[in-house]
Amino acid sequence: MKKIFLKAADCALDLGDGSERGLYVNQDYILQKLKTVHRGISLMYTYYPNDKEWPTRASKIIRDKPAKGAWDYPYEDYFPYRGGREGRLDDEPFNFMNDIRRHGQDVVLTLTIDPFLKEKDIIKIAQDLRPYGRVLLRVNHECTGDWFCYTKRASYQQIADFFVMCCNVMHKHAPNVKMILCAGLYMENTGKLEMEDIFLEAHKAADIWSGDNYLSLNWGWPYVVAKKGGNSFADYDNQKIYERFKKSVYRLREITGQNKPMVLSELNADGDVNGPYGQAEKIRDFMERLEADPDKWLDAFTLYQFRDDGRLGLEITDPNNSEVGIEQPALQTYKEFLHKPFFSKKFKIGEEVELPVKLRWTNSEDAEGIQIDVPVKKDPHYAELYFTKDLLEQNLMIEFGGWWFYKAPGVKCIDLMSWFFEHKISKSIKIKMKIFAPPADGKNHPLNKKGLSDLSVTGKELCKLDDGDWMNNYYTQIKSLPEIRIEYKPVAL
Fold first, then answer.
1. Among candidates 400, 371, 367, which has minimal Cα distance to 481?
2. Which terminus of the chain, N or C, has less C-beta within 10 A?
3. Tell me: the pLDDT tens digits for 125-154?
4. CA 316 to CA 133: how far, in whole Å?
5. 135 - beta bridge partners?
6. H or E, element range at 265
7. Global confidence as pTM
8. SS3 assignment, position 291
């Protein structure tokens, strides 16, 4: 048994999961479909607590005239953020945030916020996010556009200043939160970013730079069907989009004198425009460009999104039942790249260790686990992991031969046979199995009066921590290993 260290991919992948265009899909379902985890899962919410209609979802507000566009509402039509002043931490999005972190992924949270809220309101949000380890927070995205509701309430300078204020609050009150500025991209006609002078201080204050630009998009959805001759959609040249993103990074470095991570917070091709096969090919082309580019300029991008009510998803929502997804060709294309080394998490082998061993979970790109070799002679008929004693209540993420499996607290057995269905064994081999322990309830926990923090959901294991350590690190003590059952014949035929 050796220590194993989880590290970042060459280019990490995040996945959008729910927005104005679709509902959240649980992480167990996504894991079964894609067989691996993402760096982060992107959620999209809105917060306008001063509005008289709040917290009714915008599209449900009773109005005199019907909406004519996706943002023709008092505020954005994302689901309402129920923390902050309401303090409903057992409501959206926190139940989903717990699910994401239990499965070894980071929360990537987009919030459109009333730009006239005060610092005290943002402090409340910072306090909400403190228990969630590394949170990637995107506030008032696509802020150089004119389609979002907050751009109709405030000037661009006010929006930029509000973002800087949010950065200052998070850096002081929730240093585990990393702020994403999603602003203007490079313009060929000027050689500058859109509104770069107005947003210069915001670019400097941000922890992460970002931009949104789809490869194709029907922005008229759901009010307009994209048809030939229409004007509610566009199909863009992949190479030009790719170069625009890349030039944006160079320009940001030039005007700020800084070098920060760059992410693409929303990227996809729209099946409404390209059809399902064309959508898959445009995704393939873009990811091949990233993989082949020797200048590794991009840290991550978010595929928007897993399941979509239109055709911007790896699945489309069954119109008869929103809990059912209809797989699109893009899913298998994306899955292929998701498992490639360039887009996969890295591992660094450490020293040999003995039980008991303490594991650390910091985030999806920085964690300590253990690795053991599992000998397999040939194709098995049974391949199972059994969890007893102290392991029974542990929350574990298990990487086996490149696939990830989840074990929730209380689960006694995990079946590994799905891996063997797609990987035939012709000779005796050793398959590496890695075990990590992200937070069992999805949250890190502050110190109690004795200076101790819970290590497990049962609270039986305790460990001394520094006062500021709990926001970033979650620790678990492993006293035993799972029992491995591999059998090469069925019990009976």
1. 371
2. C
3. 999 999 999 999 999 999 999 999 999 999
4. 31
5. 107, 177
6. strand 262-267
7. 0.94
8. helix
